[in-house]
Amino acid sequence: MGSNFAECHPVGFRWAMKARERGAKLIHVDPRFTRTSAMCDVHVPIRSGSDIAFLGGIINYILSEDRWFKEYVLHYTNASTIVADTFQDTDELDGIFSGFDAEARHYDNRAWAYEGTLPGMPTQVKSADQPHAKEGQPGVDFKRFPPRTDPTLRHPRCVFQIVKRHYARYTPETVARICGCTEAQFLEVARTLCDNSGRERTSAFVYAVGWTQHTVGVQYIRAATLIQALLGNVGRPGGGILALRGHATIQGSTDIATLYNLLPGYLPAPSAQVPQHSTLEGWLENEMPTTGWWANGRKYMVSFLRAWYGDAARADNEWGYQYLPKNVGDHSHMPMFVAMHEGVLRGFMAIGQNPAVGGQNAVYQRAGLARLEWLVVKDLFVTETADFWKAPDVTDPSAIQTEVFFFPSSTTPEMDGSYTNTQRLVQWHEKGVASPGDCKSDLWFTHQLVKRLKRMYAGSTDPKDEPFQVLTWDFEEVDGEASALSVLKEINGYTLPDRKLVPTFGDLKDDGSTAAGAWIYTGIHPEDGVNLAASRVSDDYVALGWAFAWPANRRILYNRASADPAGKPWSDRKRYVWWEPARREWVGYDVPDFPSTKAPSAKGVWSRGGMDALDGDHPFIMKPDGKIWLYAPSGIIDGPLPTHYEPWEGPVANGLYKLHPRNPVAKTFNVVGNKYIDPGDPAFPIVVSTYRLTEHHLSGAMTRWLPWLAALMPELFIEISPELAQQRGIDNAGWVTVSTPRGAIECKALVTRRLRPFEVMGRTVHQVGMPFHWGYRGVVTGDVTNELAAMVADPNVTIHEAKVFMCQVESGRHAKAVLAGLGDAPRPMPHVGRRERQAAEANIDRAIALTAAATDPGQIVVEKPPFPFDQPVGVYHG
Amino acid sequence: MAKGFYTDTTVCIGCKACQAACHQWNELPALNDGVVEMTGNSYDNTGRLNAVDWRHVRFIEQFPEDRHQEGFLKGSRWLMMSDVCKHCVRAGCLEVCPTGAIIRTEFDSVYIQQDVCNGCRACIPACPFGVVDLGEDGKAHKCTLCYDRMQHGMEPACAQACPTDSIRFGEVSELMALADQRVADLRGAGVPAYVYGKEEIVGGLNCFFLLVDKPEVYGLPSEPRLPSEHVDEGFALSALAAAAVAVGSVVAFRKDRMDGMHGDEEDFAPRTAPPVDAGGAPPPARPAGAETVSFMHAVHGANEASRARRAAPALASAECGGGGCGGACGCHA
Amino acid sequence: MIPPPLASLLAQVGSPYVGHGFPPHWGWYIVLYFFCGGLAAGTYFIATLLLLVGDPRDREAVRLGYLLSFPLLLLCAVLLILDLGVPLRFWHMVVQSERIPVPMFKPWSPISLGTWILSIFGLFAAPAFLWALAEGGRLHWQPAVSLIRWAGLRSRPVMLAWNAAGTVFGLALAGYTGVLVTGTTIPVWQNARLMGALFLVSATSTSYALLMLLLLRRDAAGSAPTVAKLARADRFSMVLELVLIALLVVLLGRASRPLTTGGFGVLFWVGVVGVGVVAPLLLHRGIMRGWSVPRRELVAAACVLAGGLLLRFVVVMSPQYPAVSLWSL
User: Fold this and answer.
1) Where would you tag: which of A454, A695, B32, B76 has the fewest CB atoms within 10 A of its CB?
2) pLDDT value at residue B313
């Protein structure tokens, strides 16, 4: 679900096909009949944006049909944990959970806490809002005692009962009504899933941006988590929820923190909005739980700081913690472009990124670029972003003051480096050929940039320049760039001062005697001359000898769950990691994800903290209580349980809630040129999904310049059902104009029976689909699909909602006329005027004031920071 | 030692990696440098195998008339198939090539030697699968089964690039065994699969396919025919015609003889030489020359005959030696 | 010689060519080659026949026939070479380019066979041509003269034998041009077993026409008796041609559609059958009484020639460019 596996990840799909040849059953739930559907045993078309209803239905089926994996659920999930009576479900409040602040459109998740952790727990509202909290940090205080449980699962407020009640409404009829599928289809999927789960068998969910790019994106995946937990499909071979990443090593870029709110290894970045973050101790106190694996957080943070600031990181200066820049708000993609419009952001580096085509509401984003003072673009070709000032809709390029620097980029075969793919497998690649002309690797670019910056700041006495002065940058230099291997070694970590490589993150210390760039990667280069990422020893099963998977070369996380509470494999067929009583240790085909000698029967002592707090049958060690959270008392901004909300722009009313049909805390951008469509607006009656094709890559920056690939998919098109085509008088391969309040574009029609209208809530809903690979540069060009999309996002991670929004479709070419009618869509405009500049200064001043305020722990932040600094964000599933 | 492809269409995801890999390895230009129109024919925009697309992925959308959910799901298929030169055991292109440019390699593949081909284009209409095509360089082009790679023990680019192993390369006999097994499995699962390219197809295809629908659905002929099929009959019938024409002409020429001196030329009588001379020819409009005279014998002395006749008709038969002329000179042979 | 435009190439999409090859991009060169090849063969054949069973009055026609045949043949060779994608490699057809001078001969390949037929026919046609020149008193080049002598062409039997042999190859050439298209997998061509025969007959009829045309234009009165014979023979050929066309279309059945329908269909029925065969026959049979006989003969001959050219044009082009408008060719 939520993925066109065969289309967008053909190489990975190889394994799906292999599984199928060996008898596995593939199910595809998707609005369109795609290349993937063609390869699956079952295809169930459901309307875009109705997945949670479908998944909720499955949860309800599992519970009402009593198909859940009792022993697994009882021991490995928080089903038995009792929730405080302050929690109220959406059913009671018609679409919202308790703790909702209507005016701030924000939840106070103290209302969702476990019983017993209130009252008197430290107020950590902000912290709870920190999306990285979902990496495992609790918003509730486990420091005193473990949460209360009821192993009989009878307590009306135990998680199990709450979940059961919450999903009771998701009956097959409801699912069919909301999703537009039939009950029979739904039941077939549910039944197949249950039949194929348990001791003997496991099922896996595979998703991609089809699930994430929604205003409830995170909850989509949470819903799958519930199913997999209830069916016992986590931590076991053939199970899990597999995210297909959008491009090569995007996983790696999240690990080694390209995200503003993360430090390498998923250590939360300090935020000026969190008073506790003003000191290292406060940060640890606030972000690192005392129980579970994260109790080791201090070691990782200190080692990380040592890696960055070397000897300048000392015990007496909080290991250089204060050198780290602090966030003052949401600095993710869309807010950045809003900040450009407001004149807050004046320079921008687009490295391997093409927002002029790939950005939501592309016209708005190009207009943002037009207000920059300078723009650096580093890419393989001169992309639309580099040429944004020559966009077709720019009437007078000379009016755009932005200074654009273009750096031709090397491509993978021309550099050493590594790919981290979706299952955290890090594979090394060597330089094969020299780059043509002036093309340089990103490593070269960064290395040269840092060297110059350090030179610039060398003489400065301004304390704010100190971080640059003390930053360690001692990589060995190979023809102008830092050697990738020396970077890898720093990431792996070494002892100080003798700089011996560290074999495992178990060896990292919090006394400053070790340095590690990213603790999760420690062990990838355990000793000199041994680069595990480059190892290529294969076998026919787990293949531990093939490259390196973080953490600790572990291929399946939480694999202790592949054995029953007593440590015996659930079944011979599914044996993976188990307890060997004779040797008194965990053994198996994989690296056990558990203290190797901790017996299954071991009882944890909570007060001891760390791993000692957990029992021998608590496999989910990154969680403070060692269990899967069916119910998330904290860490999720928009609710402890996934529930069906209509998309921000949807065709119908919510089948469950009247008062709050959409995600009440969705992140909206109420700026000029980003007008939203009200639910059910007759002017825009058609549901559109944007997506990718095998033949092209994202904005086409890597493929539209290649004639070979261009010829395979030469023109932008829209996939339309014959029904809609007939209704609108559209011919196959004829021209079509597609419009939203954001923009209007022209493209060819691909009329195909692979699409069909849905019967939803008693009315017919037409769904169309559009790839978004085309722009105004390259061998083949076309209109920019993303000019249609709106900037609206999931509150947890600020991922945009591109998989479903509304539009109008007409036959023929009249985008110009439609655009003229749009009015307030902003066009790239001259440099920022005086008024905007003043507003910008004001914003910056307030941001700084905020930071200052935040650094005083005593003071509680009352002022809501000015847009765009309103809410922080987290991991982007690109 | 025959090498070939086994293309299992049931695992083809239509990613076109084979097409791209082929272009890359063989350094083929893109169709019209990449700037082509969208065809509207599903996801296929290159149309057919041609001089620059030696692999071509077909997309066949099969969806029932019943557009309601249940019906929509019943029997909905999107077939994909990566087409390629079949490297036939009995190859039409090889048969007709007049320059010996098209050869059968040591791997039993059919290969066009670009340094020999002179662009007569006989092979293009000779291929029953429409594989061979004319390149911008005026020569015939088609899949080489990556002859250059095979010579170094490498598998062809497309097979290596195929992510789902829809394209397998190897010993034809072994591949065929694999295919038969796969067919058995699929049929077991109720899929009407079969192998296209056994002996009945022009003596067998070294590059064969596993299909689940009629060959025509995939743009393949059920009964491909070889160009030589009717050539012999063609020649035979021509010979007959030749004979007929010859006989007919002879008859026509002799007709006036049979009608005596009468026939159509009566129409000409008024405008030609006097009737007495009806049989005679006008005096040769040419200067008399020694050598030409000597040649006159070649035309069995017709000149002397006529000249003599003009002098004294009685001598005619004597002169011509009684029918030596076959009667042409008007004697009574 | 570039492939057809994408548009026409994609016209096949949806109803892809199934079970036969793609158009060889044969164009005017081939059409003219087929036409001239026929004439070369026909004129030679007629000359020889007249030599065999004609009478002195046909001498002019005989000479004319041999005079025409060889140059036409040379023209054929030129057209063929020009038509090649790589003209300079024409010799690859005769000699194995890798194993010079091993001859390149594949009797089962129509083109290879044809190349040899053409070449050998050339060997026969050349001396005949020289002889005709000599006969016309236009040959003053001594070596050639002695060649003729040496070849013994002065003696009637040799001359007959020689030209009879040549005629065999000549007719083979005429027929092979038709068989050439039969040696493909394009249905309308491949199934046309009679194409060779048809081309051959058409070759003779057009040749008769050509000879008549020239004779009449030169000296209507003087050539009258010969023309009369030729006309008779031509009529026979044309009737035979008509029969063959009918058979061809009938035997082809549905496969004949490219030929008999659409724009090409019009050309075929009106041009080839109407103008090329029926009209001349009628003229011979004496319609247009108002016209003088020679005039009728002249017009008829012109029609036959036009029809013969059209026949080859339609046959060659119609299956190749179904999606292209006739007039864009």
Assistant:
1) A454
2) 35
How far apart are the CA of A249 and the nearest CA of chain B, in angstroms? 19
Determine the pLDDT at residue C97. 84
Pairing outcome for strands A425-429 and A417-420: antiparallel
Q: Residue A328: which region, alpha, beta or left (left: phi > 0; alpha: psi -120 to 50)?
A: alpha
C-beta atoms of C184 and B264 within 8 A: no
- Kindly report the number of other CB atoms within 10 A of residue B27's CB atom: 6
- pLDDT exceeds 90 at position A281: yes
DSSP state letter for A121: P
Q: For tokens 């639910």, what's the residue? A: A679
Q: What is the pLDDT of residues B229-272, one digit of tens each?
A: 899 999 999 999 999 999 998 888 887 665 544 444 433 333 33
Longest Cα separation, chain A: 79
Which pTM value belongs to this model? Answer: 0.86
Average pLDDT of chain A to the nearest whole number: 89
Residues 222-241 of B with CB under 8 A from C: 222-231, 233-235, 237-241
Q: How far away is chain B from the Cα of C307, in angstroms, using its nearest Cα?
A: 18
Q: Report how far residue A519's alpha carbon sits from residue A302's, in angstroms, rounded to the nearest whole number.
A: 10
**Strand order from edge to edge, sheet including A374-379:** A347-351, A374-379, A403-408
Chain C CB within 8 Å of residue B318 CB: no
> Which residue type does B108 have?
D
Query: How many residues belong to chain A?
Result: 878
- C-alpha A344/C-alpha A329 separation (Å) is 13
- Sequence-distant (6+) residues with CB within 8 A of A588 are A559, A562, A575, A576, A577, A578
* Token pair for B326: 């076959």
Considering only alpha carbons, which residue of chain B is nearest residue C149?
B295
- Token readout for C281 is 């026959």
Return the pLDDT at A856: 47
Task: Return the structure tokens found at A315.
Answer: 């015990």
Measure CA of the first residue to CA of the last residue in chain C; give whole Å: 13
d(CA C145, CA C124): 16
Alpha-carbon gap, residue A78 to A115, rounded angstroms: 13
- In the predicted structure, residue A274 carries a pLDDT above the cut 80: yes
Asked whether the beta carbons of residue C190 and residue B230 sit closer than 8 angstroms, the reply is yes
Using CA atoms, how far apart are residues A173 and A180, in angstroms rounded to an integer?
A: 10
pLDDT at A852 over 90: no
Decide: residue B290, CB within 10 A, 0-12 exposed, 13-18 middle, 19+ buried.
Answer: exposed
Q: How many CB atoms lie under 10 A from the CB of residue A730?
A: 21
d(CA A420, CA A563): 28
Can you spell out the DSSP letters for A135-192?
GT--SS--SS-PPPB-TTS-STTBHHHHHHHHHTT--HHHHHHHHSS-HHHHHHHHHH
One-letter amino acid at B128 equals: P
Partners of A754 on chain B (C-beta within 8 Å) are 61, 63, 78
Please name the member of A7, A707, A756 whose beta carbon is closest to the beta carbon of B30.
A707
Which of A13-27, A47-61, C106-120: highest mean pLDDT?
A: A47-61
Helix (H, G, I), strand (E, B) or coil at B152: coil
Contact B237 C93 (CB under 8 A): no
Please check whether residue A284 is in contact with residue A301, taking contact to mean a CB–CB distance below 8 angstroms.
yes
Which segments within chain B are labelled E, that is strand? 3-8, 55-62, 77-84, 102-104, 110-112, 133-134, 140-141, 167-171, 194-196, 208-211
Task: For residue A693, give the 3-state DSSP assignment.
Answer: coil
Nearest to B50 among C3, C90, C131 (CB): C3
Q: Taking the mean position of all CA atoms in its chain, how far away is CA A102? A: 26
C-alpha separations of A250 from A439, C59, C200 in Å = 22, 92, 72
Asked whether the beta carbons of residue C59 and residue B117 sit closer than 8 angstroms, the reply is no
Q: What is the ipTM of this complex?
A: 0.88
- HSE, side-chain direction, 13 A CA sphere, residue A723: 15
